[in-house]
Write a structure and sequence with these properties.
- The complex is a heterodimer of chains A (200) and B (194).
- Chain A has 200 residues and is mostly helical.
- In chain A, 74% of the residues lie in helices and 0% in strands.
- Chain A contains eight helices and no strands.
- The two termini of chain A are 33 Å apart.
- Chain B starts with 18 loop residues before the first helix and ends with a helix.
- Chain B folds into two domains: 126 residues, no CATH class; 46 residues, no CATH class.
- The chains are: A mainly alpha (200), B mainly alpha (194).
- Chains A and B meet through helix 3, helix 4, helix 5, helix 6 and helix 7 of A and helix 1, helix 2, helix 3, helix 4 and helix 5 of B.
Amino acid sequence: MNPAVTLGAADWLTLFTHFLSLSLLAVGGAITTAPDMHRYLVGSQHWLSDAQFNASIAIAQAAPGPNVLFVALIGWHVGLNAGGGAAAGWHAQLLALAGAAVAMLGILLPSGLLTYSATRWAQHRRELRAVRAFKTGLAPIVIALLMATGWLLTAAHDQPARDWPLWLLTAATTVLVWRTRLHLLWLIGAGAVAGMLGWV
Amino acid sequence: MPSQDSGAIDAAPNAPRSRADLFWSFTWLALQGFGGVLAVVQRELVEKKRWLTREQFVEDWAVAQIMPGPNVVNLSMMIGDRCFGLSGALAALAGMLTVPTVVVLLLAALYSSVADAALVRDALRGMGAVAAGLILGTGIKLIGALRANAMGMPACIGLALATFVAIGLLRLPLGPVLLVLGGAACAWAWRRLR
């Protein structure tokens, strides 16, 4: 069941400051702060249900666009609950949109301002030895982080007897991305079809 | 191509023509990015549009990843800012977020009616496996950019392997790993850069 929620002005402010406070902690992406969002919004405040929280993450990952949009969906669900649920009509939809806006603004404003000013500063001093050392040193690290992310996604399916077709699909995609200029949407489409046909 | 950049991306053959070009380019990028936008950013901005060289992309990506906030969102702001200043950063940011937000909200509204459909679940399973491959393939491609790295290839490979083991196999938290390995890497790079 989705919780019935009443949000006063102070609660909206609390919602906003919760995302504000997590923004600067989100090194490695907003998803790294998801556990804390869950603890506070689902656990302490009961502003959205467990199922709504999980659906927010699942939908944002399946949909095109940056994964940070899961934050918009969390805000959307909170607003929807405050308006009495999707069945309550346009009033609830309006509150849902307000929730999405509040959440996104909160999560993006501090990190955006910091990144903007820091990269500007570094851009004007790009010949500085420290700036060059920073970028040079981190290059192999972030490439490895990328590979580790791909690996972790694959390793989440950990039963060889059942999951080998998935691994094969991932391996084939890796080679195609690396060696060809095939449009990436074809690959995503092929994955969807393979899934629907029960091949993977 | 007319270029208004301040010489920052002078090694790249092309640059965005206008703020509208930035907005729509990033909108189109974001809408292709299932399971993460990074693979698409590399393909479109480095290989097709050539707004960045591979080496510049790795450097920018390193900064975007280290700063708090969503990586690809940071990256879009950095590229937009370099070409047109604050308004460019905002145009790129708006492109990355506006239309995709509308799409994701529509999907959420539809979701309750399809959440249980086995077909949707199976399709997502296949798309998830492809998304992992997109990330891995992009990573392999970027390894080539390390040839120009001042630390030298052996040091780069060693650092990359250590990071992969720490995050991918030992599953250590990102913060300490970045602090220790990233700190060591930057110190080594500092010594090598003259």
